[in-house]
Amino acid sequence: MSVLTFSHPKLAQIEMNFGQLMQVVGDNSELKQQLWQSLSWYLSKHKYTEAELSILQYKEPEIFEDGQCLSRNKFQTLIIESVTDIHDLLNVKKGTPIFEMMNRIIQNLDITKNIEAINYQLDEIARKMNADGALEQINSGQNIEWGILVEEINAPNLLQKNVSMLPEFQDLSYAIEYIDGYSKYLLLLEILNINLENSAQPILLMIKNVDDTLHYDEYEKIMRQIEILTERHPHFFSIIFPSQIGYVYVSERYIENILVAGREVHALVESEVLYERVCNNYPDMSVLSYVDFMNYLKTVAPYLFTNKKQSIQMSLRELVLIKIINELFHYHDFEAGMIDTYTQLEYEFLYSE
User: Fold this and answer.
1) Are 180 and 147 in contact (CB under 8 A)?
2) Whose CA is closest to 220, among 251, 189, 188?
3) How is residue 26 annotated by DSSP?
4) What is the DSSP string of 292-316?
5) What is the pairing mode between strands 258-261 and 265-267?
6) Would you tell me the crossing angle of helices 271-281 and 290-300 to the nearest 10 degrees?
7) Domain locations along the chain
8) Which of 30, 129, 211, 323 has the fewest CB neighbours in a 10 Å radius?
9) Distance (Å, whole) CA 284 – CA 38
10) What InterPro entries does this protein map onto (predicted)?
11) Is the pLDDT of residue 56 over 70?
12) How far apart are CA 240 and CA 221, in angstroms?
């Protein structure tokens, strides 16, 4: 696993573990936006405007991987910031995953005679249009003779102009805008799976606000599908920026790639190590199981390293876990909200100075 660092002055202190599945969570919205913009602009080869460069003192930001400049051409970068971006990626136009898949399909088909037949019919249409009296009237008395040309097709422009992939129900086709977000993400990920099976080109999928169109259980299922893609394809990478503070996907394999941006910024550590340290610092003997601990992390991780009070109702155990993990990372500016039930030892640990 490599480490990303940034030349941008506001991100200079951040070290981001770079793996196949990364998440940036936490309540520091401004810092998360700066990280998103820096990563997405850099990896999509964004051309900075004069105004943008003036803010950056006329020096384009750089991103480094283990101290070496990260190539902006390392990945085919796909960026989703809104549901509209998903629609664009699912359109059959050059540069999209679905175009790549369709182009491979059409190259494997013997359609030369079909295209020749279509072009013959197009020529016939042009001939009949040119024979119309209107053309004769236009050309009478003109120094230049005008004619109607119907553009012939070939496989690439057939794909871009005449082919689309639409959902069907009872023999009727529907616009993709009518399909739910969960189904759109499933379709996109399966198309990426097909493309990854047929190409060694590294792909980076960057998603912001994935949870805007997904319920939490759908979010977890989509994240699991992304994780499966990383297991199948070592050349597939993803960076996820949930918009809702309470959304995070916790797995043993990628817990170290969860970056929590609060008042301080820290990446989580290996799950068993973190669990052992939490158990060693728990205030009483009612230590939770490893499985329960991983489930609790789904709730508490986005609320780490901040002095803001929690925006959701939490149990005492969740608040205790936040305080323990904060202190393991030497972050002590934490204020817990009041809770209803507790043991004396837990209460004293949570609220003692």
Assistant:
1) no
2) 251
3) S
4) HHHHHHHHHGGG-S--SPPSS---H
5) antiparallel
6) 90
7) 1-90+200-264, 103-162, 269-353
8) 30
9) 44
10) Cas_St_Csn2
11) no
12) 14
Distance CA 298, CA 302 (A): 8
At 71-85, the pLDDT tens digits run 999 999 999 998 889
Residue at token pair 């573990």: 17
Report the C-alpha gap between 47 and 1 in whole angstroms: 29
CATH fold for domain 1-90+200-264: Rossmann fold (3.40.50)
Buried b (16+ CB within 10 A) or exposed e, 77-97: bbbbbeeebbeebbebeeebb
Other C-beta atoms lying within 10 Å of the C-beta of residue 26: 26
* The token pair that represents 26 in the structure block: 């936490």
Question: Both ends of the chain: CA-CA distance in Å?
Answer: 38
How far is Cα 154 from Cα 170, in angstroms, rounded to an integer? 32
The strand pair at 63-65 and 2-6 is best described as antiparallel
CA–CA dist 268, 277 (Å, integer) = 13
Tokens encoding 215? 């319920």
Measured between alpha carbons, how far is 245 from 312 in angstroms, rounded to an integer? Answer: 10
Angle at CA of residue 239, ends 234 and 244, nearest 5°: 145
DSSP string, 101-131: HHHHHHHTS--HHHHHHHHHHHHHHHHHHHT
